[in-house]
Amino acid sequence: MILLGGTTVAGLCKYFRRKRLTVITNSILVFDRMKDNPTTKMVLLGGEYCQEENELKGSLTNNMLLQLGADYLFSGASAFDERRGFLTNEIDSIELYNSCFQAAKNVVMMVDSSKYNANAIAVTASCGKVNYLVSGRELCPDAVKAFQENGIQVLSA
Predict the structure, then answer these.
(1) pLDDT band (50, 70, 90) for residue 5
(2) Distance between CA 68 and CA 24 in Å, rounded?
(3) Exposure of 42 by Cβ count < 10 A (0-12 exposed, 13-18 middle, 19+ buried)?
(4) Where is the DeoR-like transcriptional repressor C-terminal sensor domain (predicted)?
(5) How many CB atoms lie within 10 A of CB 61?
(6) What share of the chain is helix, strand, coil (3-state, %, to 5)?
(7) pLDDT in tens, 102-122
(8) Contact present, 91 and 109 (Cβ < 8 Å)
(9) Could you tell me which of 89, 69, 81 has the C-alpha nearest to residue 116?
(10) Which of 15, 66, 112, 126 could make an S-S bridge to 85, C-beta 3.0–4.6 Å?
């Protein structure tokens, strides 16, 4: 599976302890939380270190992803809605997101319900690219219905 950066996705790491997995990540935080698990094979994507995000980015990262595949991608977003999909404020990460979506069979977006209808600069994924949305129970029923109509299975956390 691919675990992208961000605190929401990094929070998943505790649920994967003692599981036999291969984890692909560009996140130093995810790597740090998973590296000591003896049953997990870690693949840390290379690239230029971005201190602000504590992750690796750039053409090296994207090129590595083109050689890999995963059953699942877990990603966060800066904003989301049923019309535009899932968005980020990190324009320089768009190519990384695209590479991840190509590499993964299933896409799981993990986004706090407070980011619904928020504003962000760039689309990382249209609703058609996403299989699952994990969000808070506070996500309004109309939004849940709209995402479901777009073919996304909505899970409350």
Answers:
(1) confident
(2) 9
(3) middle
(4) 5-135
(5) 20
(6) 35, 35, 35
(7) 999 999 999 999 999 999 999
(8) no
(9) 81
(10) 126
Residue type, 57: K
Q: What DSSP element (H or E) covers 10?
A: helix 7-10
Q: How many residues can be counted in the chain?
A: 157
Beta bridge partners of 44: 25
For 5, the token pair is 């950066």
Nearest to 64 by CA among 39, 94, 37, 95: 95
| Alpha carbons 67 and 54: distance in angstroms, whole number | 23
- Kindly state the tokens that stand for 134: 């994990």
Buried b (16+ CB within 10 A) or exposed e, 86-106: bbbebeebeebbebbbebbee
Cβ atoms of 9 and 110 closer than 8 Å: yes
Per DSSP, the residues of 42-79 read: EEEPPSEEETTTTEEESHHHHHHHHT--EEEEEE--SE
Report the half-sphere exposure of 94 (CA within 13 A, side-chain side): 9
